[in-house]
Design a protein that fits this description.
alpha+beta, six-stranded mixed beta sheet, two-stranded antiparallel ribbon, 10 helices, about 40% helix, about 20% strand, globular
């Protein structure tokens, strides 16, 4: 756990750190991977029942860690439901069930980091590839994230991973991709990418 948190480029919400220590991180995802994608709805309902939206997210989040041959943590990836989008939908929607739909259909790569001394060895590529495999198996139609425009090499990295980077500040419409009447707003200085 401590090694994961030392990867400075991956900022973990305290809830995710606690869930990692309690082994409840990804619990709903693990169940769905074992039982089939249809079990994800039950896992989501169980995770969110009686909990605040933010407290219910860790069982629906994915935390991957890469270790080298000496068991030293060299990389980490965290993906999770698109919390800001869902929060906005909960505020605007009369139907909370519809507002929570993105939690079982859309995942955001919230952080991907590789320790500086291990960069260039394919760890980040493997973490990204594994995240894509997990979400494909769960039949998520959309996986997305964002990177700073200062990180020009990230466009190549995500393109090589099968993602489409958008222009600086361009938003991601769910209407075009999923037929849903909402999207993720772009921010100047950041580029969204999706698959």
């Amino acid at each position: 756990m401590a090694a994961l948190l030392k990867l400075a480029d991956v900022e973990l919400d305290a809830r995710y750190g606690q869930a990692i220590e309690a082994s409840s991180i990804s619990a709903a995802l693990r169940t769905a991977l074992d039982s089939g994608p249809e079990a994800l709805m039950e896992g989501a309902v169980a995770a969110l029942a009686g909990a605040s939206f933010a407290d219910g997210m860790p069982p629906l989040a994915l935390a991957l860690v890469a270790e080298d041959s000496t068991a030293r943590v060299v990389g980490a990836l965290v993906a999770h439901p698109p919390a800001p989008l869902i929060s906005r939908l909960l505020q605007q929607s009369a139907n909370p069930g519809e507002a929570l739909l993105p939690a079982i259909a859309i995942a955001k790569i919230g952080g991907l980091a590789v320790e500086e001394t291990a960069r260039g060895a394919g760890w980040g590529t493997q973490l990204l590839k594994r995240a894509v495999q997990v979400y494909q198996q769960l039949q998520f139609p959309l996986l997305y994230g964002q990177f700073s425009t200062d990180s020009a090499h990230m466009e190549y990295f995500y393109r090589a991973g099968g993602f489409t980077p958008l222009a600086d500040g361009e938003g991601l419409s769910m209407a075009e991709r999923l037929g849903l009447p909402y999207g993720v707003e772009g921010v100047v200085g950041e580029r969204l990418f999706f698959r």
